[in-house]
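As described in the Methods, two query proteins were run sequentially through the folding procedure within a single session, without resetting any intermediate state between them. The first query and its resulting structure tokens are shown here.
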Amino acid sequence: MSLKLEGVSKISGSKTHIYPTDMELQKGTMNVLLGPTSAGKTSLMRLMAGLDKPDSGKIYWEGEDVTKKRVQDRDIAMVYQQFVNYPAMTVYDNIASPLKLQKKSAAEIDAKVQEMAELLQLVSILDRKPGEISGGQQQRCAMARALAKDVGLVLMDEPLANLDYKLREELRIEIPRLFEASGSIFVYATTEPEEALLLGGNTATLWEGRVTQFAPAMDVYRNPLDETTARVYSDPPMNFVSVQKEGAVVRFPNEQSAKMNDGLASLPDGEYRAGFRAHHLAVGESLSGAIEFDAKLIVTELTGSDTFVHLDTMDERWIGLVSGLQAFEVGQALKVCLSPENIFYFDNEGKLVASPHPKPEKLGV
């Protein structure tokens, strides 16, 4: 079982929603589409589902060309961020509806409905109609109906966005178990890098209608092919600063320097971009062997357990992550530190040339 996209694109007027894309998804895999709003995640899913027809390229399901095949004739289920249920039916009948169309027996239908209701915490409201339950419960009902179908391809477009935190975290753990048990191809869209890592499987990073990388989630996170992918797979986006490489040394704009390891020292001398994630920037503390920078606080964001600090450093805007609630003042001068072993290096074209992590033999694209 496989879903294959060959040169698939989508254009509307003068706007390109999806640039020519090649991608192959295999049976029993979790595939996360990660990107900001309007990156093209939903557009790509609609092409996979057959809701939209590509302007170029072909789509194959198990080797068969289904590019022009109607969505009703495809082996798929789809869950949207905005839930869709049958208002005149009870929750039980909503979940059971696709099974009845498949002409399952009453016993099979009841067993599957109970299984989905248990998983998605709907047992106590099976006799209610969608208008009598909360929005979060309606979303869970829509998810249960889609998952009950046992189809080959399950498309989930930010399905947990409208749920409360506790249930969202529980389902993030359960969804990978579900797809492993079903053997289906799961495609899951999200704007959150953390969610992509929690779900595991493969990640496709999207930016302005382009798939910038497609590979196992941890490979993409540890070895982003370029600056764009690194920004997409970092929350907040990765910080950058221009540096000068001279032999085995990298010089920063504040005249501080860092030694490169043997593998990185073989790169040609010249200008590069150093990138690092927010949690690798130590704010207001010293680290042994780290590079120190003078910074000015622009603004803070309190998340409850952590504080994001926005900094002006050497004409660059950086974001650091500090544990706990910190009482910094806007305009305050701060010392920030960065360990050389946490730095990614990119060339002038934005391509990754050196990573802090061992590089797999082959990175997906």
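Immediately afterward, the second query was submitted; its sequence and tokens are:
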Amino acid sequence: MAKESMKAREVKRAKLAAKYAKKRAELKKIVNTGDPEAAYAAAQKLQDIPKNANPIRMHNRCKITGRPKGYMRQFGISRIQFREMASAGLIPGVKKASW
């Protein structure tokens, strides 16, 4: 299991990213398309936004254990939890392959 502080940090990052998403998008647009003076001012404002508001800093974690590695996007859980749940028949439509 992941530490509770690590899970809480990811939740905090997700909230910050959602809060500043619109503002970041507007400033990024000005930086990429505006004239140099406006782009410089927008870049300065972009740097004032918290680092954790950047969606790149978020990391997928297992919903059950909080494990950061071996994450399966389709199910939202780690490979280990997926295997246990699939073996127990808790995931509909998934069965062990045999040939």
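The mean pLDDT is 93. We note this only descriptively and draw no conclusion about the first query from it.
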